[in-house]
Amino acid sequence: MSDLTLALDAMGGDFGPQVTVPASLQALERFPTLNISLFGDKNSIERYIPPSFKQHKRLTIIHCSQVVTTHDRPLTALRSRRDSSMRRAIDMVAKGDACACVSAGNTGVLMAMAKLILKTLPGIDRPALISILPTLNNKPVYMLDLGANVCCDSDALLQFAVMGSVLANKVDNIAKPRISLLNVGEEAIKGNAVVKQTAELLKEVEHLNYIGFIEGNQIFDGKTDVVVCDGFVGNICLKTTEGVASLMISHLKQASESSWLMRALALISKPFLKKVLQKVKPDQYNGASLLGLRGIVIKSHGNADQHAFFNAIKQAVIEVEQQVPNRIQDSLESILLEKIC
Q1: Quick one: pLDDT at residue 51?
Q2: Per-residue confidence (pLDDT) for residue 133, from 0 to 100
Q3: N or C: which end of the chain has fewer CB within 10 A?
Q4: 328 in any annotated domain
Q5: Structural domain includes residue 140
Q6: Confidence (pTM)
């Protein structure tokens, strides 16, 4: 990996520097040529930096006087949070001084700021949030949109399919990612007008490997690589998935502590259970990409711990290396040429 710089919103999320700073230091140790600029309150950030890291050549602290809160509305934040850690991290990407921005802050504000400052790629109307979910065959499935756009038309969903296909191809080396539309049934007559119209558009694009509709219970079976839906459906699906995973982990812990026999069985099966549970833990898949921008922006869960936020940083590194925005633009141009011809 050649030298690259990431701009991190150190104040975002439920825990701020308590999580973002240790995760950043972990990333610096993992990636020898990575440079990180931490934006936020300098005193708060330095509190979590060990003396040995204080003079680290690849770590820079940039003091900001403001913080975007969970209660800030996008329009208000755009006007009154110009010196916030989130805004200035995005500004650094826009200026070309950083390759990507990572934030666990307010999703709505992050999208509004990123879209205003970085602008969308030619041919993209709206950015979309995309992340990966686990499957039965241990190959991740990409799903978008996860909440950036609660209402979409068929053109937007087509653009989401293009972006999802590019990410799956470049990050996981899938030659022709299989694309599915999330629907209430697999039959052609099922779904609303937007979903049906999107299906017809996708069938016409030879550049994309569209395989048809998929239902919610089929997302995790490994038979598709990219699941496309609007942000309203996608966000509910994602949060439900995270809730079920947490419920399963909680029930297993309670059961293992219910009696001496169960504690003994849990101790014996601990290595196996740990391996299984690791595959469904939400933080394992932390790091949703805000695709469609003229720059890379990664959204971390607001409640991410150090491990989860590190995964978001790692996702940013991968997308920078694979030049994802450029690849999306190339794919869109290929589809436009295909339509013209």
Answers
A1: 87
A2: 85
A3: C
A4: no
A5: yes
A6: 0.85
As a whole number of angstroms, the distance between CA 101 and CA 299 comes to 9
d(CA 21, CA 275): 28
In which element (H, E) is residue 289 found?
A: strand 288-291
At 94-109, the pLDDT tens digits run 999 999 999 999 999 9
Same domain, 227 and 255: yes
Note whether 207 and 334 are within 8 A (CB): yes
Handedness of CA 320, 321, 324, 327 (dihedral sign): positive
The answer to whether 72 and 81 are in contact (CB under 8 A) is: yes
Predicted confidence at residue 338, as pLDDT, reads 60
Element (H, E) at 180: strand 178-182
Other Cβ atoms within 10 Å of 74 Cβ, number: 18
- How does 49-71 read in b/e, with b if 16+ C-beta sit within 10 Å? beeebeeeebbebbebebbbeee
**Whether residue 125 has a cis bond before it, omega within 30° of 0:** no
Range(s) of the domain holding residue 65: 1-124+292-323
Overall residue count recorded for the chain in this entry: 341
Instruction: Give the model confidence (pLDDT) of 291-311 as tens digits.
Output: 999 999 999 988 889 999 999
Residues 132 and 271 in one domain: yes
Same domain, yes or no, for 226 and 169? yes
**Same-domain status, 189 and 260:** yes
Q: Which residues contact 72 (CB under 8 A, 6 or more apart)?
A: 81, 106, 109
Give me 174's structure tokens: 């899938």
CB atoms under 10 Å from CB of 238, counted, come to 20
Tally the C-alpha atoms within 13 A of residue 269's C-alpha that lie toward its C-beta.
13
Residues 119, 129 within the same domain: no
281 and 306 share a domain?
A: no
Domain-embedded: residue 335: no
**Bridge-based pairing state of the strands 296-299 and 288-291:** antiparallel
Helix (H) or strand (E) holding 107: helix 107-118
In this structure, the answer to whether residues 206 and 90 fall within a common structural domain is: no
CA distance linking residue 311 with residue 163, whole number of Å: 21
How many domains are contained in the chain?
2
